[in-house]
Amino acid sequence: MIEKKMLFTPGPVMTSRRLKSVLAHPDMPHRQPAFEQIVRRIRANLLTLFRADAGYVAVVVSGSGTAANETALSSIVRPGEGVLLVKNGEFGNRLEDILACYGYERRTIDLPWGTMPDPAAVAAALAANPRLAWVCMVYHETSTGMINPVRAVGEVVRSHGRKLFIDCVSAVGGQDIDVLRDHIDVCSGVPNKALAGTTGCSFVVARRASVPALGPDLPRRNVYLNLQKHIEWAEKTNQTPNTPAVTMFIALDAALEELMEEGLDARIRRYQECAAILRAGVRALGLRVLLPDAQASNTVTSVFLPAGVMLKDFITELDRRAYVVYAGKGPFYDQNMFQIANMGWIRPADCRAFLKVLTRTLADMQKHG
Q1: Rounded Cα–Cα distance for residues 364 and 309 (Å)
Q2: Residue 141 CA to chain centroid, in angstroms?
Q3: Which helix (H) or strand (E) holds 42?
Q4: What is the mean pLDDT of the chain?
Q5: What does the pLDDT average to over 68-73?
Q6: Angle 153-157-158 from CA coordinates, rounded to 5°
Q7: Please, what sign has the CA dihedral across residues 26, 253, 163, 151?
Q8: Are strands 337-341 and 300-304 parallel, antiparallel or unpaired?
Q9: How far apart are CA 216 and CA 102, in angstroms?
Q10: Which pick of 67, 146, 286, 366 has the fewest CB atoms within 10 Å?
């Protein structure tokens, strides 16, 4: 039997006993009404989650958040249009990989990790280049835990008559997202982070008017990840173009049901309470936190280890004590930074228990270091 560990990680995350129970569902073929009812329910709940109106459509993709991002970005940029990418971390880099793979003309506002983007720089770039039809940015840059200024950038994009794509993979379910208020045309997400679901599928929510139709001027650039085909199948029959990850759809449906029962505002408050407990606890231990609270997400805290405690050994020792955190990425790995996430089925009591284990672990490692 696999040993139970407490996952204080930004995905995969802790799931409820109730959600785990639905994974043992009876065998279900996807081309039948029962599955279509599940997809219909998922799509409606996703629109509610993003506070979208009838002008938006939601589709589910079998694959990780990168699959959802590629589904969107490979399909929404017309030939001859350019893209402005605002990036300040690892997941902005991954958006860049997709844009580069499809050969789009692009301008990049490339900021050091952990640096807040300036909406004025976005405005200047758009004013200087009318070919930049889309602006792309990550909502919650998980590599640092920073929340980017999506609402302010959305205002800039709207005022210049352009369109906005936002990677909401680590934000949805944990942050206040409103696609109408924030002028988001297309966005992506996954279940296995703040939604407290499982890995294996992802989703795209799009303003219908912002998704160009396929035709001679816009041929399909791929097959499996084409957004227009996903929308066509979803709208006609609540189906997918290809065989979906049925069990993961069922788990997504259950995770959304749990979230709706808890209430999005209540879940966000729970995440905020957990983050506040964790941040106060690590600061009480004398540890330095990467970001000021005003710039930090509700679900990820980036922390630097004290001198003399090596990151790899610390991660291994915490894991031995049944707690899992992630090492910092990119430039922060060599600075002995680790990340504590309070996404998923984690309660304030779990955070307090984690802090006790963290305190003992650091004391033991410093004593024997």
Answers
A1: 10
A2: 8
A3: helix 33-49
A4: 96
A5: 98
A6: 115
A7: negative
A8: antiparallel
A9: 18
A10: 286
Q: DSSP string spanning 127-191?
A: HH-TTEEEEEEESEETTTTEEP-HHHHHHHHHHTT-EEEEE-TTTTTTS---TTTTT-SEEEE-S
Region 88-103 average pLDDT: 98
Measured CA to CA, the distance from residue 335 to residue 333 in angstroms comes to: 5
Counting other chains too, the contacts that 20-26 makes at CB distance below 8 Å and 24 or more residues apart are 22/250, 22/251, 22/254, 23/198, 23/247, 23/250, 23/251, 25/247, 25/250
Q: What is the pLDDT of residue 212?
A: 97
Q: What is the pTM of this model?
A: 0.97
Q: Shortest CA distance to 57 belongs to which of 161, 185, 213, 169?
A: 185
**339 vs 351: CA distance, rounded Å:** 14
**Least confident window among 21-25, 55-59, 62-66, 129-133:** 21-25
| pLDDT for the residue 318 | 97
Q: Return the pLDDT at 29.
A: 84
Q: How far is CA 293 from the centre of its chain?
A: 19
List domains and CATH numbers for the chain: 6-11+263-368 (3.90.1150.10), 17-261 (3.40.640.10)
Nearest to 156 by CA among 180, 176, 182, 179: 182
Longest Cα separation, the chain: 69
From the list 252, 260, 247, the residue with the least C-alpha distance to 60 is 252
- Is residue 84 classed as helix, strand or coil in its secondary structure? strand
pLDDT at residue 28 in the model: 79
pLDDT > 50? residue 136: yes
Q: Which of 331, 343, 351 is nearest to 144 (CA)?
A: 331
How far does CA 175 lie from the centroid of its chain? 10
Confidence of residue 1 (pLDDT cuts 50, 70, 90): very low
53, 78 contact by CB (below 8 A): no
